[in-house]
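Q: I'm writing up a methods section and want to include an example of the input and output format. Could you take the sequence below and give the corresponding predicted structure tokens, formatted cleanly so I can copy it straight into the document?
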Amino acid sequence: MPNPAHPTQITKTVLRLRELIFNGEFTPGERMSELPLVDLLGVSRTPLRLALAELEHEGLLRGLPAGGYVVREFTRGDVRDAIELRGVLEGTAARFAAERGATARDLNALRAINETIGKLAHRADFASFERYVQLNDSFHVRLMKMARSPMVERAVEGIVSLPFARASAFVLADSELSLSRDLLIVGHRQHADLIEAIELRQSARAEALAREHARVALTHLEIAVDNHRDELNRVPGASLIALADPEPASEPA
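A: Here is the clean output for your methods example:
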């Protein structure tokens, strides 16, 4: 008889719950009641409770003082902060890659990915945008590996567990806008400059370029929210984002 607290059971429960939350099956502020979730997921309470605790640790759920969890809501400010933090970590990874020396194989792999990205960035069809997202994600994953830092890699994984903090998060939401295609061209050029800086072992330049590159995602966010809100449903986890920033607190009289 399988152990209900077996790591495989817990992992499967975490993955399924995370998928349901990102797909909008639960709304921000909704309580995650144990009994309905046990029935929905077909698991016992032990792996469910451990999975809920893991998702609280990831930041998707918020623990209640009296016990239990609710789905978190994220403001546009939260998303901006997550993207900025990813940029800091990717900047550190780029600096490490430059300082520690990149192999010709890794540099050539980045160039090959970016060459294809450059071709796709000039196309207007949705399939090209989808392929761009896949290649862009591959570029960033490869860059992380080149840092040769498990610590940085784990930190980045924690940030991008929130899918709207990933490098290509809002690209598809902007796919029908000409301004978004311009941003893809900018991103492609930044990739080329970043590869060059790493190859020349210009660590400070590599770090600055990677941090600036992350800010392209912030522009995609603003474009998606301000111009194409209906397309945000293409972004996993977008249902958790409050599109309007909260009003700033007024100063006491």
